[in-house]
Amino acid sequence: MSAAPTLDHGKDRMLLAAMTGEGLRLFFPITALHAALWPLLWIVGYGLDLPFATTTSPAQWHAQEMIIGSFGAALVGFLTSALPEWTDTPRLRGWSLLLLAGIWAVGRIVGMLGAEAFIVISAVADQIWIALLIGYAIFLSWRRRTMGLTGFILFLAALSGGAGAIRLAMLSGDFQLGESAIRVTAFAFLGLLGLALARITTPVTNLILDPSEMTSPYRPHPGRANLAAGLVGLLLLAEFAGASGEVRGYLMIAAGCAFLDRVAEAFIGREMWRTEIVALGASSGLGGAGLVVCGLSLLGLPLSFVGGLHLMLMGGLGIGVLAVLSIAGLLHTGQPLHFPLSARIAIAAMFVAVLMRILPEFIPWMELPGGSHTLAACCWSFSLLLWFKAYVPLLWSPDTLDKETC
Fold first, then answer.
1. Cβ contacts of residue 160 below 8 Å, gap of 6+?
2. Is residue 131 within 8 Å of 160, Cβ to Cβ?
3. Residue 211 backbone dihedrals phi, psi, to 5 degrees
4. From CA 236, how far away is CA 55, in angstroms rounded?
5. What ranges in 210-244 are assigned the alpha helix state H?
6. Which of 319, 264, 261 has the alpha carbon at shortest distance from 292?
7. Neighbour-count burial of 290, counting CB atoms closer than 10 A to its CB (0-12 exposed, 13-18 middle, 19+ buried)
8. What is the CA 23 to chain-centroid distance, rounded?
9. What is the Cα–Cα distance from 183 to 125, expressed in whole angstroms?
10. Average of pLDDT values for 363-385?
11. Which of 6, 20, 22, 244 has its CA 20 to 30 A from that of 57?
């Protein structure tokens, strides 16, 4: 009579071990759920408002929750899995990951309602998990005596500063400070994206060109590797220094062109039409296009800065994150690198979401059913929930533990 409870307890322990076997197994599903549900809640449920936000800007809460919340969870999952792989050190597992998830969740609970009374608690929680990532990267760098993680550490520090400034702006009612802080967090994530794509694109391309992994037929120009991230770093310095709009505009155009240049890495013959390659190339392309649009807007051209920002974040970062979730979700569970149909549909749906969100910014007379945000939010959420349904059975299966193929 007591065998069944014991068996169930054993299954629960195996499930927990699979969920916390490495960072991406826990945080990638969290990313998908938060990124899918938050926009629907804010747009459809709250009507672009928040229940307890009376003196703070709901739009800045939205930006904070998408960048620091959704993309932040993806960042935790990616770095806690990738940094040990790059430094050949043991990965974080078990309760250390659950602790990180709990700290991250404190800020998200506050953000879900726009609870101004708890801004300080939320701010402290966000600073803690970012600081833990920085400390982890510094520790691995010291342990392996390498400078290869310096870029990640610097961009994480910028992210920490931007996240803190957003909360300070909310507390002080300084709207302009909040807008500047949002730009800093967005650019910090673009820098991290540039560094990540430089490390991801080449092995993924070679794996597609030669699944046997016996050769490395693709070798990109070394000067292209960190150019985009480096120019984003200059842009961040200009933001921190309070440079003029013209200076920041030219730097945005330069960084955007560097991202657009990375699209050339997708030209590998007929295999360039593989969804895995298209998604990585589109991440660079849309991120770069968004930066160029924002830069031209600051230089006085009649282009929507908000439209460029969404092209950069929803398009560049959003599709980049979904591509990483889809690629790593296969390779870290022992699957061949070939997106299932659900992943291909998810990426297509995210493309549609980006178009639905930015077109009204550039075509003001364009009217969409349900307004300019509802369709975009629905397509965006559908994309991520579809990924969640397809990948969670792999990531949370005890059978896929220790079957990594990357």
1. 127, 130, 131, 134
2. yes
3. -60, -20
4. 28
5. 227-241
6. 261
7. buried
8. 14
9. 21
10. 85
11. 244
Question: What is the spatial distance between Cα 404 and Cα 406, in angstroms, rounded to a whole number?
Answer: 6
| Residue among 152, 222, 135 nearest 194 (CA) | 152
Share of the chain above pLDDT 90, in %: 73
**In this structure, what token pair is assigned to residue 65?**
């929750």
Residue 235, both tokens: 């842009």
- CA-wise closest residue to 252 among 195, 314, 309, 196: 309
**Distance, C-alpha 384 to centroid of its chain:** 12
What is the rounded CA–CA span in Å between residue 103 and residue 106? Answer: 5
Name the residue type at position 338: H
Neighbours of 211 (CB within 10 A): 11
Neighbour count for residue 47 (Cβ, 10 Å): 11
Q: Using one digit for the tens of pLDDT, what is the confidence trace for 378-390?
A: 999 999 999 999 9
Dihedral angle computed from the Cα positions of residues 305, 311, 317 and 320, in that order, rounded to the nearest 10 degrees: -160
Phi, psi of 270 (to 5 degrees): -65, -20
For residue 375, which amino acid is it? L
Distance CA 215, CA 212 (A): 8
Query: Residue 388 burial by CB count (10 A; 0-12/13-18/19+): exposed, middle or buried?
Result: buried
d(CA 351, CA 345): 10
Nearest 5 degrees, angle CA 271-CA 276-CA 281?
A: 85
Q: Kindly state the helix (H) or strand (E) to which residue 249 belongs, with its residue range.
A: helix 245-262
Predicted local distance difference test score (pLDDT) of residue 5: 54
CB atoms within 10 A of CB 9: 10
Residue 171 and residue 181: Cα distance in Å, rounded? Answer: 13
Report pLDDT digits (tens) over 63-77.
999 999 999 999 999
- Nearest of 207, 394, 343 to residue 403 by alpha carbon: 394
Which token pair is 81? 């899995």
Interatomic CA distance for residues 235 and 342, integer angstroms = 37
pLDDT band at 118 (very low <50, low <70, confident <90, very high): very high
Question: Are the CB atoms for 321 and 271 separated by under 8 Å?
Answer: no
Helix (H, G, I), strand (E, B) or coil at 270: strand
Which amino acid belongs to residue 342? S
- Given a cut of 80, whether residue 51 has pLDDT beyond it is yes
**What pTM was computed for the model?**
0.93
State the pLDDT at residue 346.
96
